[in-house]
């Protein structure tokens, strides 16, 4: 038992690694995941709209892109982009692999987020689009103002889950060989674990990951519950129907026309 505790919970090594985990690892992990999530969300929406287009020259490239980046292992994509395209991007990024790591994570995320958006948009009843067109909206305006907002609202739990996966996938960029100041949580824990032969630094890194992902997991559950059960709002008690003055509004489908 003492050997187990010393291997996984050696507090000397844990306190030794914690400053670097918080000052360097946490910051870089949040930058990698946050920037990749923003870029991936924008690209994912573009891919989703292209995939739903009636034009074959838009729809097929989106499907091919999605199949490739969802079908390849994330580590392979990161290595191909980070190392294979490193020479081509050298005039722009120099020898710094950090932007290439973000690019790889963004492209991977866009493929998954695009599918999430596509499923959400397709789940909106066709009558919403038809009613919007009947009111004089163009197809593009109806999609942007009516259909897409409802579709996005329905897939919020899946989006947050994808952001959680992106935080964990950020551990894979260490294969690109970041500088000491660019290391994320896993690399910092792994470096000290390799130097000491003790796994406690990795346990400390895992604890920081849990601090990030567990609240997001509970946020997913909260959003999902709100979307499924709806919320109660108070109506005008003087409407003369003799009711309780409460009506149930389903928040999952957005505002119907």
UniProtKB/TrEMBL annotation:
Biased composition (Gly residues): 240-257
Gene Ontology MF, one: transmembrane transporter activity
PROSITE patterns, per the entry: ABC_TM1
Domain ABC transmembrane type-1: 26-220
Organism whose genome encodes this protein: Amycolatopsis carbonis
Disordered, as annotated region: 231-257
Subcellular locations according to the entry: Cell membrane
Family named by the database record: Belongs to the binding-protein-dependent transport system permease family. HisMQ subfamily.
Protein name: Amino acid ABC transporter permease
One Pfam family linked to the record: BPD_transp_1
CDD domains xrefs: TM_PBP2 (cd06261)
Recorded coiled-coil stretches: none
One of the GO biological process terms: amino acid transport
Cellular component, GO, one term: ATP-binding cassette (ABC) transporter complex
NCBIfam families referenced in this protein's UniProt entry, alphabetically: HEQRo_perm_3TM
Membrane spanning stretches: 30-52, 64-86, 98-117, 158-179, 199-223
Keywords: Amino-acid transport, Cell membrane, Membrane, Transmembrane, Transmembrane helix, Transport
Membrane topology: Multi-pass membrane protein
Broad class of where this protein is predominantly found: membrane
Superkingdom in the source lineage: Bacteria
């Amino acid at each position: 038992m003492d050997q187990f505790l010393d291997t996984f919970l050696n507090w000397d090594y844990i306190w030794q690694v914690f400053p670097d985990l918080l000052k360097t690892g946490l910051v870089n992990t949040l930058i990698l995941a946050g920037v990749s999530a923003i870029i991936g969300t924008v690209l994912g929406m573009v891919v989703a709209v292209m995939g739903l287009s009636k034009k074959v020259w838009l729809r097929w490239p989106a499907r091919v892109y999605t199949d490739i980046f969802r079908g390849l292992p994330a580590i392979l994509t990161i290595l191909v982009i980070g190392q294979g395209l490193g020479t081509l991007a050298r005039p722009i990024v120099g020898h710094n692999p950090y932007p290439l790591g973000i690019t790889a994570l963004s492209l991977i995320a866009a493929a998954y987020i695009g599918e999430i958006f596509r499923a959400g948009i397709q789940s909106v009843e066709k009558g919403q689009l038809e009613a919007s067109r009947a009111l004089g909206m163009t197809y593009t305006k109806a999609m942007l103002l009516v259909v897409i907002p409802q579709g996005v609202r329905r897939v919020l739990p899946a989006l947050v889950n994808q952001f959680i996966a992106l935080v964990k996938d950020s551990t894979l960029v260490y294969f690109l060989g970041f500088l000491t100041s660019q290391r994320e949580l896993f690399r910092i824990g792994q470096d000290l674990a390799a130097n000491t032969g003790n796994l406690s630094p990795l346990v400390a890194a895992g604890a920081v990951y849990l601090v990030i992902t567990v609240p997001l997991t509970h946020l997913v559950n909260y959003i999902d519950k709100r979307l499924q059960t709806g919320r109660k709002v108070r109506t005008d008690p003087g409407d003369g129907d003799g009711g309780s003055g409460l009506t149930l509004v389903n928040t999952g489908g957005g505002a119907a026309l």
